[in-house]
Amino acid sequence: MLPYARPSITDAEIAEVEACLRSGWLATGPRTARFEAALGEQVGGLPVLGTCSGTAALHLALAALGIGPGDEVITSPMTWVSTANVILHVGATPVFADIEATTLNLDPAAVAAAVGPRTRCILPVHFGGAPCDMDALEGLAREHDVLLVEDAAHALGAAYAGRPIGSIGDATMFSFHPAKNLTTGEGGALVLRDAAVAARAARLRYHGIAQDPGARSSGRGPASYDVVEAGFKYAMSDLQAALGLVQLARLKEMNRRRAELAALYLDRLADVAGVAPLALPDARHRHAWHLMVVRVEIERLRVERDDLVGRLREAGIGAGVHFVPLHLQTLYRPLVPAGDAFPVATDAHRRILTLPLFPDMETSDVDRVIEVLTRILRETERGTAARAAAPAEA
Ligand SMILES: *Cc1c(COP(=O)(O)O)cnc(C)c1O
Known about the structure:
This protein is of the alpha/beta class. The chain is built from 13 helices and twelve strands. The chain has helices at residues 11-23, 30-42, 54-64, 82-89, 108-114, 134-143, 195-205, 213-217, 238-269, 305-314, 343-351, 363-380, 384-389; strands at residues 48-51, 72-75, 93-96, 119-123, 147-151, 159-160, 163-164, 171-175, 188-192, 275-277, 292-296, 352-355. The strands form three sheets. It has a seven-stranded mixed beta sheet, with helices on both faces. Strands 10-11-12 form a three-stranded antiparallel beta sheet. A two-stranded antiparallel ribbon has the order 6-7. Strand 4, helix 6 and strand 5 (147-151) form a beta-alpha-beta unit. Helix 2 (30-42) runs parallel beside helix 9 and helix 3 (54-64) packs across helix 7 (195-205). The radius of gyration is 22 Å and the shape is globular. The structure holds pyridoxal-5'-phosphate (PLP). Pyridoxal-5'-phosphate binds next to helix 3 and helix 4.
């Protein structure tokens, strides 16, 4: 089975993790600090906090920015569930805005229409690693004096008009889940613009204790500690950071390989009828190529998208679906307007599927995916009977 994602782990990662194990320091410590500094350099020198997951980083961001009950956060329905779950965790209300059909990124016009008196924050998701329209979203955030928090789980290494993703919003979350462009096993990071917010996030990351946990556990700080608010246990461990340090040094090369494979896919897909890749960001932006998502002209087929994914998997191609939109989930259905308020996301959901893309894939793997996809599309195409029912040509 060719999975849709697989981490790229070399002997260098294994050696660094082993060195960490032998060092006797496994929890948050020197390797986490080095990882945070190295990542900070890539995002314009902003403060970075390593976390135990991307979800934890996003939760910390909203909590540290003081988003809470009575506040609305505008986000995309086309995302992983944690983007909206953390809005609920801080007691705020998620407000979905529809997406662009061609990129699956938030549609700035829909965001503008969703802004209201209670809006505190706009939370875009850089879908698949392609940057959102940040000129428009930053403009809206400024115009309405609201915060901009980015879910960049897919977008480590991406850039918008020369600005690295991570250097733009008030806060940016990265995920280092094993499927993502960089992995720490599980893990994440939070980048913050404001030093005071970063200090609060650091405190919330470690139980709400008002002192540097590294200083205390290394015996440099005072033996006593003071809990000033109910924080979380969200820090990255040095074992995770050991993996992350080597992965970060390899990120450019891994992302370059993703882009190379993506270009090959785009070339091959041009010859496959009824399947279109997502639109590319224009040339002044950099794509992180986290996911290879295609839109299938499902009307041409006798089967639904899920059947297509099933057939691909039976044939050894680990296709995925990113994502089942949140407005269709049981938890969020009561929170959205009646009727189909997000027709673009609903329609996209019927036709999207994710093809395998990861740095260690061979070019022959891409050819195999295209070959199998082409065969399955041919086998599931509506028959001549269905075509005969269509209006005859004049
Ligand atoms: C992976 C992902 C997350 C969550 O990251 P974790 O590290 O798994 O907690 C959030 N948002 C999006 C869009 C993701 O793909």
